[in-house]
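New to this. Please check both lines:
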Amino acid sequence: MTGLQDRLTPEQIEEFGRELDALRQRVVDDLGEADVEYIRTIIKTQRGLEVAGRGLLFAGFLPPAWVAGVAALSLAKILDNMEIGHNVMHGQYDWTRIPELSSQRFEWDNVAPAENWRHSHNYLHHTFTNILDKDRDIGYGILRMDAAQKWHPYYLGNPVYATLLALLFQWGVMLHDLEIERVFKGERTWAENVPVLRKIMRKAARQIGKDYVLFPLLTGPLAPLTLVGNASANLVRNLWAFSIIFCGHFPADVESFTQEETDEESRGQWYLRQILGSANITGGPLFHILSGNLSHQIEHHLFPDIPARRYPQIAAEVREICERYGLPYNTGPLRKQLWSVAKKIVKLALPGTPSGGPEVTVDPDRQLRAA
């Protein structure tokens, strides 16, 4: 892997950073009513889909109604998590001063408490993107997702762990904040996890009560069908979120970095790290909306706090800047990126460094990695 310092000259890095700063400022200066109207329309659509989905499950004795209900509820949960929750909690709409769009007040339809997620995602992941042993999203503490992670027999289960994480993704995100791998290493005590655990248990109880107790009971004799329908919608959302997030972070050629090479990095070097450590997914407008525009993961990592609806508008300019500086712009259709991720998961289950480059000495049991 070519080091960050070897990519561009110090002068180029400085100019590169200025160009991206200028691009960001142009977007910020242009924010206005159209952005507010967009997110309000998405919220209105999400709520309509949820009401329709819940309502159709009341007629679940008719198979077409049950299927339609699950489909509508799945879309509602995807929109809530991806285009609304993820983006609002990033502070993309804090400039509006609208309470329902406040990053600090928003709570999503997910077992992971928003407060915990804002720390592990907004701060840790987006500050230390793809820095080994700093960005805990690299493998989420259970997977080997980079060849620099020293192999351990535990990683033979990589494909199994990845499959379980995909199926139970919201629960994986919830447990992420317990930092279990650090507890096992003696770097964190169980006592330190008590406050986090309380928040997790409260939020999980609320979500379980809503999807698996309250709404099924409201449908009377159809309760079992409603419960299965809600579980199916959560499963669809989990698989979709896993696919989008992993395709934005772990395809071939997405790079990771050591703490040493990122010490005292400039703004331009930080931008460079975001580009080298991200990948996009091509698709149409609806696809981008359902992905929360995380199909533009490169643009999101560069500018996490500007409204995600703006990413498609600036993607061509970001790509042109990359080409001008001789930098890669990793993008491709979902099937290509997902296949690339799947191959990496399988290859990295085995000893060696299949993605090339020397292994970095990392603690065998520290199953961390980047997103």
Remarks:
- The chain has a mean pLDDT of 91.
- The CA atoms of residues 121 and 266 lie 21 Å apart.
- The radius of gyration is 21 Å.
- The first strand starts at residue 280 and ends at 282.
